[in-house]
């Protein structure tokens, strides 16, 4: 495969001569190329079949959006380099999302590191891996029908219901039960003794079932969906970082001013996620809790049900079946 970095960097002087054409910066070209290089190296080891999923990406800069790896770029994007297309910016510069913006395949839309929560190049790279995992979810046969069958949109056609569904985050009994479940999940993950771990894990599975049974049918479906979709995407972000601990990035990427060694990033990424989980409060953090909580459930499933990924897409939009398998 041709080097995207080389193609884009070599294209910069030519593009600069044509003031009507936008220019992708050398640093942005390096980051984008490193994502595709990294993904091709580790993705199959994290999720079998992941490499078969298309990975189109839009990089959002303050003035321009750059599209690459798309099988049929929309006509409002103009070619500026080999497999790179550009149009005036439409998306927010801080966006980190995946969506079928132009129909399938689903598209990663992400701002530059400095304008997003990532702030630096190495975390940004693994956020893109997170978004790439969403592409794997979207690509599953029947995914859209399954989401529609949840019947949670209440007439919303924009997809914003996924963010704004009125889950009872503030209800005292839900908040308290969630906190107890969270604490038991963390205790289970921190337990190193085999027998004690098995006891705590069984207790967690049973308490999890009781917690979800206490919710209304729609609330149960919504929380289960969010943990399945966003929580496991965060889990995959962590697992990708750990899989990349011994990966050797290109010299261009490691020369970036904000580069963090992958081995160092991998060493603290899981701990950062679990520390975030320790601090979350359902009433205050609301939907954001699903990221760290769902990731932690993935870590637990790795220990109690090593083949759980085989069930993940078989029973879409909920991890309930994965936990039921170990009761």
Write up what this structure looks like.
With 327 residues, the protein is of the alpha+beta class. The protein folds into 2 domains: 4-118 and 134-138, no CATH class; 143-324, no CATH class. It is 55% helix and 8% strand. The chain has helices at 4-16, 26-46, 121-138, 143-149, 161-164, 172-190, 194-213, 217-243, 251-254, 262-279, 282-285, 289-304, 309-312, 320-324, and strands spanning 57-60, 64-68, 78-81, 84-88, 96-99, 107-111. The chain has a 6-stranded mixed sheet with strand order 3-4-2-1-6-5. Helix 1 runs antiparallel to helix 2 and helix 6 (172-190) runs antiparallel to helix 7. 35% of the residues are buried. Mean pLDDT is 93; it is low at 1-19.
In terms of topology, how is this protein built?
Layout lengths: L3 H13 L9 H21 L10 E4 L3 E5 L9 E4 L2 E5 L7 E4 L7 E5 L9 H18 L4 H7 L11 H4 L7 H19 L3 H20 L3 H27 L7 H4 L7 H18 L2 H4 L3 H16 L4 H4 L7 H5 L3
Parallel strand pairs: 1-6
Antiparallel strand pairs: 1-2, 2-4, 3-4, 5-6
Helix pairs in contact: 1-2, 2-3, 2-8, 3-8, 6-7, 6-12, 8-10, 8-12, 10-12
Give the gist of this structure.
With 327 residues, this protein is of the alpha+beta class.
Shape: globular
- The succession of helices and strands, N to C, reads HHEEEEEEHHHHHHHHHHHH
Strand order of the largest sheet: 3-4-2-1-6-5
Uncertain parts: 1-19
- Could you estimate the helical fraction of the residues in percent? 55-70%
**Rg from alpha-carbon coordinates:** 21 Å
State the end-to-end CA separation: 47 Å
Biggest sheet overview: 6 strands, mixed
Question: What structural class is derived from the secondary structure elements?
Answer: alpha+beta
Strand proportion, as a percent range, falls in 5-15%
Mean pLDDT, as a whole number? 93
| Helical run tally | 14
**Overall tally of structural domains:** 2
How many strand segments?
A: 6
């Amino acid at each position: 495969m041709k080097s995207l970095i080389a193609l884009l960097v070599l294209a910069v002087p030519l593009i600069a001569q044509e003031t009507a054409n936008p220019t992708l910066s050398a640093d942005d070209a390096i980051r984008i190329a490193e994502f595709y290089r990294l993904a091709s190296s580790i993705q199959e080891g994290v999720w079998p079949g992941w490499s078969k999923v298309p990975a189109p990406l839009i990089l959002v800069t303050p003035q321009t959006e750059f599209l690459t790896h798309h099988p049929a770029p929309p006509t409002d994007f103009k070619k500026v380099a080999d497999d790179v297309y550009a149009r005036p910016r439409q998306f927010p510069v801080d966006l980190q999302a995946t969506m079928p913006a132009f129909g399938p395949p689903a598209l990663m839309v992400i701002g530059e590191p400095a304008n997003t929560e990532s702030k630096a190049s190495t975390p940004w790279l693994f956020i893109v891996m997170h978004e790439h995992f969403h592409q794997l979810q979207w690509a599953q046969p029947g995914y859209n029908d399954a989401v529609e069958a949840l019947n949670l949109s209440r007439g919303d056609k924009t997809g914003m219901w996924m963010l704004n569904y009125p889950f009872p985050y503030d209800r005292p009994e839900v908040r308290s039960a969630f906190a107890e479940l969270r604490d038991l999940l963390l205790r289970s993950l921190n337990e190193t003794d085999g027998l004690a771990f098995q006891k705590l894990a069984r207790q967690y599975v049973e308490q999890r079932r009781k917690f979800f049974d206490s919710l209304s049918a729609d609330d149960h479906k919504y929380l289960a969906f969010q943990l399945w979709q966003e929580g496991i995407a965060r889990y995959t972000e962590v697992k990708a970082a750990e899989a990349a601990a011994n990966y050797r990035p290109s010299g261009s990427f490691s020369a970036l001013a904000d580069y963090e060694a992958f081995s160092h990033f991998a060493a603290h990424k899981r701990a950062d996620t679990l520390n975030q989980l320790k601090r979350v409060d359902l009433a205050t953090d609301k939907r954001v809790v699903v990221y760290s909580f769902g990731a932690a459930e993935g870590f637990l499933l790795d220990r109690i049900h090593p083949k759980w990924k085989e069930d993940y897409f078989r029973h879409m939009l909920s991890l309930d079946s994965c936990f039921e398998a170990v009761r």
